[in-house]
Design a protein that fits this description.
InterPro entries: Beta-barrel_TonB, Beta-barrel_TonB_sf, Plug_dom, Plug_dom_sf, TonB-dep_rcpt-like. It is found in: Cell outer membrane. It is a multi-pass membrane protein. It contains seven helices and 52 strands. 6% of the residues lie in helices and 53% in strands. It has a 22-stranded antiparallel β-barrel. The protein has a five-stranded mixed beta sheet with strand order 10-16-17-14-15. Strands 38, 39, 42, 43 and 44 form a five-stranded mixed beta sheet that branches. It is globular and about 85 Å long. The protein folds into three domains: 88 residues, Immunoglobulin-like (Sandwich); 122 residues, Beta Complex (Ferric Hydroxamate Uptake Protein, Chain A, domain 1), CATH 2.170.130.10; 562 residues, TonB-dependent receptor, beta-barrel domain (Maltoporin, Chain A, Beta Barrel), CATH 2.40.170.20. It is mainly beta.
Length: 798
């Protein structure tokens, strides 16, 4: 009897397993698993959702007709599943605005978030083919990008830039203690080819992310590991090659994921090389020579010579190369827990700072023979523990231990000078993040956590005689005795559905910041202090509501506060020069705050047309603005042999910024989609009655695309409005050589790009950008944009 019973059990298990097929849902282009996809069984009306690995077991329902759907993809009808099956979903012609986002550090339904949010998927990145992550953000038409050189890109978000906007990667703060207040080019350290998605949360994010998030948060998510359901190993990956004509770009990318039931490892690498950038040749008749590079400096036989440029539209010297490497090793401790170790490293060649290479002295002679950033090196190590088992304290918890090592350097030499000045900074960053999610009821959820952060900064300076190679000391960029910047914070964010029409959110964060910098060497400058020490704290908050009176209509209301404590660059920058002025340290700085009021609307009409818009007003109090200052009682000092007006960052009192963003998407027919986006902002320093530096002119993006199963074809225009000379901030007027006498000119480009799916594995993309070969220079930029440019790439997925 026992034998017969055992045989029956074995046969039953075999029969059951034969009907317990595994269904995997993946993205058609990226091969990434799609979690929270819904599987509806038409016969039984049963609905199941895929897990975080994009998988679901079908059991005895495998023979039913199933509808597989997800808000970000087109639905698919699947018939009998007789074996383990992979179903690929593709994006719809008109993307519905219902995707999950990370505004709370945890994924949630976008329709429940009152913030204005930009989401960029891996599909969009592959289709748009950006050279850098800065270009990726700029292609959206919602983030304005400034460039001081080709190897850069400084996002401007709602009138803020540099250290007033926060960069996050996989839950880790990337901003460090020496992020400066001018334009900041560090976002290109993040490789778009190694991202699964990116999000921009517009407006103050301090209630969730703390200091620096005045204008917004850029949240980047790298490729995610995936697992199989058995012990056998599987692998998948992507290889990509791209060539661009305007700067002779050569980019190669490869990433590979190897996984089984317990282990998963994702490795990726990208190498890019760029020659000097060719700008557009079609200029306005009023400014026919604007932006032309007539001559450059070259060292010949030990002498600096000014050489005529054979091609005035070729911006010598602007080329560089960069590489990025990432590895993520993940171990599945159980169905609810995982442990992931990530290593991310990026470095570059020397990167010429083009705007300084075209600067001229009072006699009209090129001023700098050399001005370049040394290799920008960034190393991140992170260990993440995640658990999704429910208990009294959380339904999900993430603990991240991370360390960063950053090395930056600046090198410059005047024309006909033999001394090359070099300043090198090293920053070590150590952080602990604990984030928790607890579902209080069917209508309410709580997100809470804590962060500890420590920055250590060292700074060195030297001069090298390029003829004799003798090295001598020079002043450092930051205090030579070293600096410490540390913070501790705790936060809570609550959301609840008051009824079917109203979702209410509230957030609160307390942050404490300590800064100490020591000045040891007085041989170069007689500082009136030995050290600078600051201790600041702040309570940041937000209140928001999402009101949905009818289906597909949302009205958002949001009040939020922002906070930024001065960092080492603000307080202790020893000396930093710009044309005609020198910036000195200021030990009497206090935090700056913003108070943001915004409202927005989203309306989807019959799944064919979507309209969205946001209007905001931001009060900026105790704003850090560069203003006239004194050093040891003097308002003018000689710096680098040049009489220079003394300036420093000071808390000016109050400023304001207002702006709007509008979007329209329309599915014109089965194959044609129209999309447009326009953004604008303006602001004023109310104490000095002057414009603010990082508010940008009106800009946007309009496109008409054709999409079929194999082919995507898109024609589009990018544009910028003008900003007159009187509308420029004083710091921009000081850089007159970057502008015309009319200020920043308006411009537009005409472009076309396409993507052809040759097979399930191979995709070819091609683009022709700036077809009219127009010369234009985006507002505040030190280098002109590319002229007519051909781009072609091949992407193979296996």
């Amino acid at each position: 009897m026992n034998f017969k019973l055992s045989l029956f059990v074995i046969l039953f298990c075999l029969v059951y397993s034969a009907h317990s097929q595994l269904l995997s849902i993946k993205d058609e282009l990226t091969q990434a698993p799609i979690k929270q996809a819904s599987v509806l069984f038409q016969n039984s009306n049963k609905i199941v959702t895929t897990d975080e690995f994009g998988q679901v077991y079908l059991g005895g329902t495998a023979s039913e007709r199933m509808i597989i759907s997800h808000p970000s993809y087109s639905s698919v009808l699947v018939f009998d599943v007789s074996t383990d099956t992979i179903v690929y979903l593709s994006e719809p012609f008109l993307e519905i605005d219902e995707v999950v986002v990370s505004a709370s550090k945890w994924e949630q339904d976008r329709s429940e978030v009152p913030n204005e949010i930009l989401s960029i998927s891996a599909k969009q990145i592959a289709r748009n083919n950006p050279q850098t992550s800065a270009d990726m953000l700029g292609q959206s038409g919602q983030v304005f990008i400034q460039k001081s050189q080709m190897g850069g890109g400084s996002p401007m978000i709602r009138g803020f830039s540099a250290n007033a906007v926060l960069i996050m990667m996989d839950g880790i703060r990337i901003n460090n203690a020496i992020y400066r207040g001018g334009n900041l080019q560090n976002v290109i350290m993040l490789d778009p080819n190694l991202l699964s998605e990116s999000e921009v949360i517009f407006g103050p994010g301090s209630s969730m992310y703390g200091s620096d998030a005045l204008g917004g948060v850029m949240d980047f998510h790298t490729l995610r590991p995936s697992f199989t359901d058995d012990k056998s190993f599987e692998s998948h990956g992507t290889g990509m090659m791209r060539f661009s004509l305007a700067n002779l770009e050569r980019t190669g990318h490869f990433h590979l994921n190897i996984q089984n039931k317990k282990w998963s490892n994702t490795f990726g690498v990208t190498f890019s090389e760029y020659d000097d950038l060719r700008e557009g040749s079609n200029r306005t008749s009023k400014f026919p020579d604007y932006g032309k590079r007539f001559e450059y400096i070259k060292r010949i036989n030990g002498q600096d010579r000014i050489i005529p440029n054979g091609d005035v539209n070729k911006q010598r010297f602007s080329g560089y190369h960069q590489y990025n490497i990432m590895n993520k090793l993940s171990y599945r401790l159980s169905n609810e827990s995982s442990l992931t170790y990530m290593l991310y490293y990026t470095s570059s060649s020397n990167i010429p700072r083009y705007d300084r290479l075209i600067e001229r002295d009072d006699q009209g002679v090129l001023e700098s023979a050399e001005w370049y950033y040394g290799p920008q090196q960034f190393l991140l190590n992170a260990l993440t523990f995640a658990n999704y088992s429910s208990n009294a304290f959380y339904d999900g918890i993430k603990i991240i231990l991370s360390s960063q090592h950053v090395e930056e350097s600046r090198h410059d030499r005047k024309y006909q000078a033999s001394s090359l000045r070099s300043r090198t900074e090293q920053v070590g960053v150590y952080a602990l993040n604990v984030d928790l999610d607890k579902k209080i009821s069917s209508r309410s959820e709580l997100y809470y956590g804590a962060e500890l952060l420590l920055n250590g900064v060292s700074s060195e300076g030297q001069k090298t005689d390029i003829n004799t190679h003798l090295v001598s000391p020079t002043s450092t960029r930051y205090p030579d005795g070293g600096s410490v910047y540390a913070s501790a914070a705790t936060y809570a964010n609550f959301k609840t559905r008051l009824n079917e029409e109203v979702m209410f959110t509230a957030g609160l964060r307390y942050t404490y910041v300590h800064l100490k910098s020591a000045f040891d060497d007085r041989s170069f400058f007689d500082f009136p202090y030995d050290e600078i020490e600051l201790n600041n704290d702040a309570l940041s908050g937000s209140l928001g509501a999402v009101i949905s009176p009818v289906k597909n209509l949302r009205w958002n209301l949001l009040f939020s506060t922002g906070f930024r404590s001065p960092n080492v660059d603000d307080v202790g920058k020893v000396f930093d020069s710009e044309p005609g002025s020198v910036v000195v340290p200021n030990e009497n700085l206090s935090p700056e705050y913003t108070f943001n009021y915004e409202t927005g609307i989203y309306w989807a009409l019959a799944n064919r047309v979507t309209l969205d818009g946001t209007l905001y007003y931001t009060q900026w109090r105790d704003a850090l603005v560069r203003s006239p200052f004194t050093f040891n009682g003097q308002s003018t000092i000689v710096y680098d042999g040049v009489p220079s007006d003394v300036e420093a960052l000071v808390n000016v009192g109050e400023a304001y910024i207002w702006g709007y963003s509008l979007g329209l998407s329309a599915k014109l027919s089965r194959h044609f989609v129209f999309m447009s986006r326009i953004s604008n902002n303006d602001g004023e320093d109310q104490i000095n009655d002057t414009p603010l530096r990082h508010t940008n002119p009106l800009f946007g993006h309009v496109s008409l695309s054709y999409r079929s199963k194999k082919l995507t074809l898109e024609g589009y225009t990018d544009f910028q409005g003008k900003r007159t000379w009187n509308e420029l901030a004083p710091s921009e007027q000081a850089k007159a050589y970057l502008y015309t006498t009319d200020g920043a000119l308006a411009w537009y480009t005409l472009n076309i790009r396409s993507a052809f799916q040759v097979s399930n594995e191979l995709q070819i993309t091609a683009a022709l950008e700036n077809i009219l070969d127009k010369h234009y220079r985006p507002y505040s930029s030190g280098i002109s944009a590319a002229g007519i440019n051909g781009v072609i790439s091949a992407r193979y997925t296996f």
